[in-house]
Every structure is written in structure tokens, then in C-alpha cells.
Amino acid sequence: MDWTIWLEWVIKGLVLCLVLLVGFAYLTWYERRALARIQVRVGPNRAGYQGLLQPIADAVKLIFKEELTPSRVYKAAFLLAPVLTVVPSLVLAAVIPLGTSFNLFGREITLYVANLNVGVLYLTSIASIAVYGIVLAGWSSNNKYAMLGGVRATAQMISYELSLGLCFAIAVVMGNSMNLNEIVTAQKDMWFVVIQPVGAFIFLIVTLAEVNRAPFDMPEAEQELTAGYHSEYSGMKFALFFMAEYQKMIVISMIAATLFFGGYREIWFLKDTFLSVDRAW
């Protein structure tokens, strides 16, 4: 295989990781500002203009924070759990098509890392790996609160896997393919959300449960289980759990857009409108 292909994959992977990291950082900033406005507060506004440097300040704080590892934990599993949680959220995005190809220095560049014929199966498989990270975090902490939080989070995520799989199956059947590029192409005339609104609505509910957002935020258990499965984590290990949650939100939004909202393609009825106006002129 040509070394330039490997180089292209590496560059695409690094760019994708960078985009997800920046997206995670400023999604947290936006959420904090929005919640502050709802609660008639100011929100983060000290670091930089309107608090725009707050995510960087938080990252620096967590990097230099003391790493505490309780003596009673199962150390290997305790250290592996954050990695098993954050890696799936990064590699899920590798098969999502982000646009059409373009020419750069005589070479065709595609806006995806990998074009798999079984892309939907890949999404289903990788998404389920994060469960192991949560199970390990709860069990390896050797703490009753962390264990209960891990069991609760795992039970919720597994219970919605079947519904999530059925939602994926809807897109596969309507697109007549498991390739995400072909599913996007199949929506050129009409989005699948219009044809199958019930499936899209179920996907919305299921993904809320998958990323532990309200009203499915019980696994975090802030009141009764002292933050749940990651209660024994601090510093960058805690930041990895935090990062995984927000990156998963971004990636699941990308998956929803790909499967039900036409992906990177233009809105079909606006396309017809613009063509009609262009012909009229």
C-alpha cells in the first residue's frame, strides 16, 4: 500500500480528533453559559472575552491537579477504564461521511477516515464498547457508591441497545445498504425522518439515555451516589470520563444527521426552491 494513503489516514484521524476535542471544550462552555442564563446568572466570564478561554483554563487545572489513586482499587482496571470510555467516542466518528470529496494537489481527498461497507454494524459494535469502561470504573474502584453507579449506568445503556439497533435497522432497510455514504445518497430526494418520523423520535429518546442526559441522567447520581461510577477518579482520569460524555453527544448528533437528516447533503426542498428561483431569473 502506498505510504501516502497511510499518511492521509493519519492526518484525517488527527484532524477529526482535534475537531472533537475543540467541540467538546466549547460545548461545555456553551452549556454553562446557557444554564447560567436560565438560572439568571452570568456563567463563566473571567477567562478571556465572554469566558471563551474557560475550557483551556479548566484543562490546565485538571492537567496539574494531583492524581489520587486509592490504595484499595484494582489498579490495572482502574487505569484502563477511562481509556475504554473515551476511545469509542473518538473512533465512532471515523466512518461518518462529512462531505463530498475534493481535489488537493491533484489528489482526491474524501471527507471521512474510512468508508466501510458495514458502517452501521461498526457503529453498533463500537458504541457498545463504552459499557465495559463504565463497568470497570465501578468495579475497580472497590467502592459501594461507585459500584452502584456503574451497575445503574450499565443497566441503562444495555437496556436501550436493542431500541438503538432497531433504529439503525430502519436506516439500513430504507437505504438498502449498511454503508453510511450510500445511506446519505439514498436521502437525496427526501430525508428518512420524513418517511419514518417514529423511528427518528425513538432514536432521539434512546440516544438521550445513551449519553445520560435529562431525564435519563440517573447514572450520574449526583445526589445519592456522589457522582456515581467515577466518584474515585480525579485529575485527568476524571477529565477523560467528562470528555467521553460530551464527545459522545457530538458523535451521536452526527450519526443522527447521517441516518435521518440527509447527512452532508443539502435540504432537498430548498434545493428545488433555489433551482426554481434560478430558472426564473
Description of the molecule:
The chain is mainly α and 281 residues long. It has 2 domains: 1-64; 68-98 and 115-267, no CATH class. The protein is 64% helix and 2% strand. The protein is built from 11 helices and 2 strands. The protein has a two-stranded antiparallel sheet.
Characteristic terms for this protein:
281 residues; mainly alpha; 2 domains; two-stranded antiparallel sheet; 11 helices; 64% helix
The total number of structural domains is 2
Uncertain runs are none
- End-to-end Cα distance, whole Å, is 50 Å
In terms of DSSP E residues, the strand content is under 5%
- As a whole number of angstroms, the C-alpha radius of gyration is 21 Å
Mean pLDDT: 84
Give a short account of the largest sheet: 2 strands, antiparallel
Helix/strand order:
HHHEEHHHHHHHH
Helix content: 55-70%
Strand-pairing-aware structural class: mainly alpha
Task: Give the spatial strand order of the biggest sheet.
Answer: 1-2
Using the alpha-carbon principal axes, give the shape: globular
How many helical elements? 11
Strand tally, please?
2
Task: Give a brief rundown of this model.
With 281 residues, the chain is mainly α.
Task: Annotate the secondary structure layout.
Layout: H1 3-38, H2 54-64, H3 75-91, E1 102-104, E2 107-109, H4 119-140, H5 144-159, H6 161-175, H7 180-185, H8 192-195, H9 197-210, H10 235-260, H11 268-280
Antiparallel strand pairs: 1-2
Helix pairs in contact: 1-10, 3-4, 3-10, 4-5, 6-9, 9-10
